[in-house]
Amino acid sequence: xxxxxxxxxxxxxxxxxxxxxxxxxxxxxxxxxxxxxxxxxxxxxxxxxxxxxxxxxxxxxxxxxxxxxxxxxxxxxxxxxxxxxxxxxxxxxxxxxxxxxxxxxxxxxxxxxxxxxxxxxxxxxxxxxxxxxxxxxxxxxxxxxxxxxxxxxxxxxxxxxxxxxxxxxxxxxxxxxxxxxxxxxxxxxxxxxxxxxxxxxxxxxxxxxxxxxxxxxxxxxxxxxxxx
Length: 228
Hints:
mainly beta, 16-stranded antiparallel β-sheet, 16 strands
């Protein structure tokens, strides 16, 4: 099966190419924080909260940091889930957004700009507004009631959720990521429609059927119905 996760993985590889780095020890971040403190830089753990863009990573990707410590990388209808924490004593952030930011960072803020710096990387972000994203799909979409619900396979990291309103969510448990889609069922084909940015659309078609045990078969891979 040409897994739908290929879409997500390819996007991640492209978007995170500039963001790849190795995890460093806290001591490095602490040293950098101390150096910055001597130069009069002030920190506030909430300064990072908001929506940001970093063109060094991707102009199509938005990074969202929330007050409760949740962190996200979003582009189009795809989302990678992560977290961040602020260590006040040492004035550094621990950030883990898989494939993008995963290190301890000292931070500097200048109006609408933020610079995150680790031992081996430095990224400059600008405040941004996440655009509204509307999936481009045919007006009339057909739903097969047999596919409705949640499906999971022991052979892949993918989980599928099909809703009655022709929307679907594909979750990749390996990358902690989701893709929001619309779908159409017709002539043994499932077609997914999604957005790879706020303006660029994409689609993916797979063969689908059901075996004698009621399992959903997508391009030869079997998925069992699950209750969430």
